[in-house]
Specification:
The chain has 127 residues and is of the alpha/beta class. Helix content is 50%, strand content 17%.
Length: 127
């Protein structure tokens, strides 16, 4: 179990869906300083961005749009195309989780002065 500190600032990856919205609401309710963000890359619609922004507004938390289109194209799409051309069946989600969601998001979180990230998808605490 993680110990909560008053200075904990958590960036929650918000999609506008139930899981991430609930995670943000619970963290805020527990007294954490919470901000929300959506990662934007190919396939993320303006409707999804608007829904995430509305969710953050309802929760009364600051909201950020993090444009990762360039990184997504360079790391995920280019690898998918190259692997497919070699006759392989690539799994872009594996690379996206590692290289985009938990690398680039972590870097952005640190640059924003936050010290933790949360999503509605993985239920475990790692220090």
């Amino acid at each position: 179990m993680s110990r909560k500190f008053p200075e904990d600032r958590i960036l929650v990856a918000i999609s506008g869906g139930v899981d991430s919205s609930t995670a943000a609401a619970l963290l805020k309710e527990q007294g954490y300083q919470v901000e929300g963000a959506i990662m934007v890359f190919e396939g993320v619609s303006q409707d999804r961005i608007n829904l995430a922004a509305q969710t953050a507004e309802m929760l009364r938390i600051r909201f950020h749009v993090i444009d990762l289109n360039r990184e997504f194209q360079a790391s995920i799409i280019s690898n998918f195309v190259a692997e497919y051309a070699k006759g392989r069946t690539p799994n872009p989600c594996v690379f996206c989780n590692k290289l985009i969601k938990f690398d680039k998001l972590l870097m952005k979180e640190r640059a924003m002065g936050m010290n933790k990230i949360a999503t509605g998808h993985y239920v475990r605490v790692e220090n």
